[in-house]
Known about the structure:
alpha+beta, Sulfite Oxidase, Chain A, domain 2, Immunoglobulin-like, 9 helices, 13% helix, 30% strand, globular
Amino acid sequence: MSRRRFLKQASAVAGGAAAAALASTKSAAQELAAEPWEKIYGAAFTAYGERSRFEQPVIRHIFTPYGGIAPGSGAALSPIEALEGTLTPSGLHNIRNHSGTPEIDPARHQLVVHGLVERPLKFSIDALSAYPMVSRIHFLECSGNSSRAVTPKPAQVPAGAMHGNIACSEWTGIPVRVLLEEAGVKPEAKWILAEGADSAHMSRSVPMEKILDDAMIALYQNGERLRPEQGYPVRLLLPGWEGNMNVKWLRRLKATATPTYTKDETSKYTDLLPDGRAMQFTFEMGVKSVITKPSSTMTLPRQGLYEISGLAWSGAGRIRRVEVSTDGGATWRDAALTGDERPKAFVRFRLPWEWKGGEAVLASRATDERGRVQPTRAEWTSQYAPANTYHYNAIVTWAVGTDGKVTHVFA
């Protein structure tokens, strides 16, 4: 949203006086004095850029359910409440590991393509790096993201500690179909088993349709080689599908006639239903949004004009609409969407709002290009058994008290 558009909307919301307060006055500009740093020569170049010393460190929320017994099993959640824009810095990207991050020597690592193929192939990282590449921007979301919202009482933690098992990056690599065409996939091959080189040998079965559509062998993230925690030296990327299927430290792709039903897709990542059955293979992530500013554990310091801002995404494609409510869903207003509205990627939404000191309940509701609308909490919970915590995409609500404190509430 441009500054002019924001001020125009702000004027409509809060009146011209409040909007004008955002701008510098002519007299203030005339009084601008030279600061000490304007009078001395600046610092020399550095080999790798760092944040300003005046900025507080922005770090991930670490979740290790087994503590010191298995410190590498758990998750590191992106601090979405502290970030702006739609791209996540590589060092703040979410992580979900089952057995820690392996230290892999790229000179020794190989990717094997085998199974129901005419020509089994083995690729070194150098060989993969010689292929023509493509770059795409996509989100990665753990299927267990927002599981802390599936609790009897609202958790009072920052937005990222609850909804931050997701991030959005630019990924660069090779379309998987290129390697499969080279190997010659047999007609009876309908699935691909993807397996990682971590000590847990994380593995998932992927339908061939997805593999031949937009699956990628990713070697780079945000312009740099993958970081170890993101699958260095090579990972599978399945845009819009649940995070665990985007197998890191990829070591083999096996073409099969049926799903392999590995431990990672039978012991976990299934949705429990009210009738006692379990629904398997929920691959695509649902339409979802969350307000990141203001959000849980924050405090509004004073009455006045604020910008409600957040993120929206859908595993089905593009976000077409985000509505924002400040009265718990009684009324809704369309927010402005910023960015290129790419498919299966973050979209930032923004809406000016005047807080007059009273109680408010903030919520956002996203609609994707298929027409799917983000469900209410009641609608989502009615579909699953109480113990189910996967694929939660219900509307998130934050309450603003008269003291300006923002808390998580169910509405």
